[in-house]
Write a structure and sequence with these properties.
Layout: E1 8-12, H1 22-39, E2 43-46, H2 60-70, E3 75-82, H3 88-101, E4 106-111, H4 118-123, H5 135-145, E5 167-171, H6 174-183, E6 187-190, H7 198-208, E7 220-228, H8 232-238, H9 240-251, H10 270-279, E8 284-286, H11 288-302, E9 306-310, H12 316-331
Parallel strand pairs: 1-2, 1-9, 2-3, 3-4, 4-5, 5-6, 6-7, 7-8, 7-9
Helix pairs in contact: 1-2, 1-12, 2-3, 3-5, 6-7, 9-10, 11-12
GO cellular component, one term: cytosol
InterPro entries: Bact_Lucif_Oxidored, CmoO-like, Luciferase-like_dom, Luciferase-like_sf
Pfam family, one: Bac_luciferase
C-alpha cells in the first residue's frame, strides 16, 4: 500500500483540558494546527459544540479565522457546522468570508445533530422536537447561497455567492450517507464516537452515489481516535483521558478533559467499562508501527479515501508528539 495516496487529517474539538484556561486551550489548538501543517496533514477541522465545559469550539468560524491567520497552507474547515442551529444564509456568509480571507483553503463540513443538550437547543432558538428532517432543505438553501445563480437574486451571501467552497456531509448513521450519495457530496463517518453504523453507511453511500458538479466519484473520509506514543504502555496510559471523556459523557457529568490515570477501575463500574470499550473499539492506541498497521487495516476494510484523526490527550505537548509520530511512520 502506498500511504502517500491516503491523506491524513486532523479533527480538533479545541479541548479545554483540566488545569488549562479557555485562552490556553485556543492557543494549544493553534500550536497544534501549526505543527500538523508542518507534519504534512492535509486538513485541520474544528467541530461545533455548545455548553460543554471541556470544548472551546462553539464559535467555530471565529476559531477557524484565527487558525487560518496563524497557518499558511493547511486546509481548514468545520467538522462540522451543525446546520440546523443556523440560518443557511449566515453560514454562507461566514464561510464566504473565510474563503475570501484564505482562498482555496476552506472546507465546509455539515452535520444535523445539535451538538448540545435539549435546554441549550432552546437557547440556540432551535426546536428541540426537530428531528433533523429539514436538513436536506437547509442544505439545498446553503448550496444555493454559495452558487453563481444566487448572484442574480435579491438576497445573496456577500461574501459567499459564486465561491467554490467544498461541502462535506458528516454522519454517525446511514441518513447522511444516503443524502451525501444523493447530492454527490463527499461523506465523513464519525467512527470516533459512533462506530456501529460505519460499515453500513459506507456501503449505502457507495451503492447510491450520483455524480455532481462538485464530485464525480464517491469519496469517503473516516474519523477515528488515535493516540500514538513511543511505547504501547504509554499510549494506553494517555488514552485514559479519552476513556474518562466517554465515561463522564455517559453519566451526563460535564467535565474538562481529565488528566490520564493509572487506575480506570477506580473510576468506572464494570457495565460502564463494557459500554465504553464497545464505543471506542475503533480507537487506535499504540506505537507508530501499531498505529500504521491498524490504519492500513481500517482503510482496507472501508475503502476510505482519507482518514481524519481526533486525539484526546490531556497534555498539549504529548498531543502534538502523537501526531508527529503518526506523520513520520505514515508519510516518510
Amino acid at each position: 500500500m502506498n500511504n502517500k495516496k491516503i491523506p491524513l487529517c486532523v479533527l480538533d474539538l479545541v479541548p479545554i483540558a483540566q488545569g488549562f484556561s479557555i485562552s490556553q486551550a485556543i492557543e494549544n489548538s493553534t500550536k497544534l494546527a501549526q505543527a500538523v501543517e508542518e507534519f504534512g496533514f492535509t486538513r485541520y477541522w474544528v467541530a461545533e459544540h455548545h455548553n460543554f465545559s471541556g470544548i472551546a469550539s462553539a464559535a467555530t468560524s471565529v476559531i477557524l479565522s484565527y487558525i487560518g491567520a496563524k497557518t499558511n497552507k493547511i486546509r481548514i474547515g468545520s467538522g462540522g457546522i451543525m446546520l440546523p442551529n443556523h440560518a443557511p444564509l449566515v453560514i454562507a456568509e461566514q464561510f464566504g468570508t473565510l474563503e475570501s480571507l484564505y482562498p482555496n483553503r476552506i472546507d465546509l463540513g455539515l452535520g444535523r445533530a445539535p451538538g448540545t443538550d435539549r435546554q441549550t437547543m432552546l437557547a440556540l432558538r432551535r426546536d428541540p422536537n426537530n428531528d433533523g428532517s429539514d436538513f436536506p432543505m437547509m442544505l439545498k438553501y446553503l448550496q444555493y447561497y454559495l452558487s453563481n445563480e444566487a448572484g442574480n437574486k435579491a438576497v445573496k451571501a456577500i461574501p459567499g455567492y459564486g465561491l467554490n467552497i467544498p461541502i462535506w456531509l458528516l454522519g454517525s448513521s446511514t441518513f447522511s450517507a444516503e443524502l451525501a450519495a444523493q447530492k454527490g457530496l463527499p461523506f465523513v463517518f464519525a467512527s470516533h464516537f459512533a462506530p456501529d453504523s460505519m460499515d453500513d453507511a459506507v456501503k449505502i453511500y457507495h451503492a447510491n452515489f450520483k455524480a455532481s458538479a462538485q464530485l464525480k466519484e464517491p469519496y469517503v473520509m473516516i474519523c477515528i481516535n488515535v493516540i500514538c506514543a513511543q511505547t504501547n504502555e504509554e499510549a494506553q496510559y494517555l488514552a485514559t483521558s479519552e476513556l474518562q471523556k466517554f465515561l463522564y459523557l455517559n453519566r451526563g457529568d460535564d467535565k474538562q478533559l481529565q488528566k490520564p490515570t493509572k487506575d480506570m477501575n477506580s473510576l468506572w463500574q464494570e457495565w460502564e467499562e463494557k459500554s465504553i470499550r464497545h464505543k471506542t473499539r475503533e480507537s487506535i492506541w499504540g506505537t507508530p508501527e501499531v498505529v500504521k498497521k491498524r490504519l492500513e487495516n481500517l482503510i482496507a476494510r472501508t475503502g476510505a479515501n482519507e482518514i481524519m484523526i481526533n486525539c484526546m490527550i490531556h497534555n498539549p505537548e504529548d498531543r502534538i508528539k502523537s501526531y508527529e509520530l503518526i506523520s513520520k511512520v505514515w508519510f516518510e
